[in-house]
Specification:
Length: about 210
Amino acid sequence: MKKIALSLTILLGALSASNATAFDGDVNAGKEKSATCAACHGPDGNAPVNIYPKIAGQHADYIYKQLVDLKSGMTSGGKEGRMDPVMSAMAMPLSDQDMKDVAAYFSSLNMSEGATPKDVVEVGAMLYKAGDAERGIPACAACHGPRGNGSSLAKFPKISFQHPGYIKSQLEKFRDGTRHNDLNGMMQDIAKKLTDKDIEVLSQYLGGLH
């Protein structure tokens, strides 16, 4: 819980920072550089396959951070950043400006809406909005917002409308430690307390969160 509080403090500091600068990626240049991304993420950034993330409408700062981390994962042999056999290899040849441009382009697009199964709405909403104090699980909404829009400055991703399959796989990776590029290990700490059922419910709930 201390890590959650620290992360929220960082978020508030970022939101109040007077010297924040605009993201300097070029949308048009990013569109030209995005051709290879379409194979998995779709030409409009809405991945047609459930296991790949939708990146249309995602915060540019977040996309950029993930690309930097994925590249670092490859160069460090998985010791730093985020290691993914496919995406780390894709990020390797990208320059810093390439990553900013691609991030700016996909951020400018619209994420397609999803749906939440009726049988998970009630329990999913409770876990997302209130967490579970008895198990030390904070509300997801504390960082990702009541509508799941996240925060660009704090690099908390937009998770509403995301593919359930992708959300599920990432929560499982945070839980077992194979993904560890989260701020202060916050998501790892939370995911370790989630059961398989929790993860299934949250992933389905977020698919249609407005």
